Amino acid sequence: MLGRLQGLIGKEFAQMLRDPVVLFLVFWLTTVEVVMCTMAIGFDVRDLGLGLVDHDRSAASRGLVEEMTAGDSFILRRQFATAREAADELRKGTLHAVVEIPPGFGARVDGGRGAGFGVIVDGSNATVGARARAYIIEMAARFTRGRAMGSMPMSGGVEPSVRVWYNPDLTNTRFSALNMLAQAGFMLAVILPAAGLVREKQNGTLEQIRVTPIRAHELFLGKIIPPILVTLGSVFPSLLVIRLLGVPMAGDLATLFLLEFLFLLSAVSIGVFVATLTSTLQQAMLASFFSLFPLLFLSGSIAPVDSMPRWLQVAAQASPLLHALESVTGVFLKGAGMRELWPHAAALVGISLPLLGGGWLIFRRQW
């Protein structure tokens, strides 16, 4: 028995060591992905986008902004002439907070009197919104202490009037529900076409199909269309669950389904590309999870993308989940339409086309 067991173990090791796909996946998962995910999962929220509307333009208002941007909590993205322009950018998701300093702010501060300023925080991601609000309150208190230690003591402090948009109570339920809507569709859309196409190879039915009148592009489309329709149909029960969880729907369903279609197309293109590079179901599943986990970590659902190193922020733009999450939160919580979300739609198309094109070329050569 020991001799037979030794032979079986040796055979399994030989098969694994001869399989370049498995060896690459083992190397990737234990090295590159460990580094990537460790650096991506950082819960210290920093480098948040800040918009400024300064109606005062005084030394005191500039000092307040310098206090907010001196550390790594906020980055001043842009100054706006009106609050409406800043609110539009907040709705697009390019900013996390907007500070509006009223006229006369500097005169009140210089006179030692209390002064206030307005703040709007994007609360669609409750964790980021809560941190942004806390940072602003802390920085306003620090600015007040700094002025109080100067030559002109203050009888009142500098108080921010903070309003949280899109998720006023800063609960994680809404963001988590929308996050799971995107993640569930993504996993299904990657695994279904990968498993379906590789199963044809492994069972030998692909060889039988080749002798039929079916052409390569017909089979290729036949493996793409059903997973898209199934995962797109699965959105309906998810919408019912999200509704029962109390997540409001501020946008329109047409925009949501168009963006969901583009998102699922990008996910299916990943699954098809994986299937063309693998020959067994085991390889396909390993490769699918190899693509799922880094894209999940880079989506901003676990840790804010702005808190990641710069090279990871660039890499995160290749994650369909990032654009899907921005799209669904934009439609549901912000009431955004294609005017605000078209960059994410364009990114999803840009992800899908090369993968589908590469998958088709490899499949056509194998056919």
What does this structure look like?
The protein has 367 residues and is an alpha/beta fold. It has two domains: 48-165, abc type-2 transporter like domain (abc type-2 transporter like fold); 172-366, no CATH class. It contains 16 helices and five strands. Strands 2-1-3-4-5 form a five-stranded mixed beta sheet, sandwiched between helices. β4 (115-122), α7 (126-148) and β5 (158-165) form a beta-alpha-beta unit.
Strand order of the largest sheet: 2-1-3-4-5
Query: Regions with pLDDT < 50 over 5+ consecutive residues?
Result: none
Describe the biggest sheet?
Answer: 5 strands, mixed
Mean pLDDT: 83
Percent strand equals 5-15%
Count of DSSP-assigned helices: 16
Summed up, the domain count is 2
Total strands: 5
Given the C-alpha coordinates, what overall shape results? elongated
* Rg measurement, Å: 26 Å
SS content category? alpha/beta
Order of helices and strands: HHHEHEHEHEHEHHHHHHHHH
Looking at how many chains there are and whether they match, the oligomeric state comes to single chain
Helix residue percentage: 55-70%
> What's the end-to-end separation, in Å?
44 Å
Family: Belongs to the ABC-2 integral membrane protein family.
Main location: membrane
Transmembrane segments: 21-43, 175-198, 219-242, 254-277, 284-303, 341-363
Subcellular location: Cell membrane
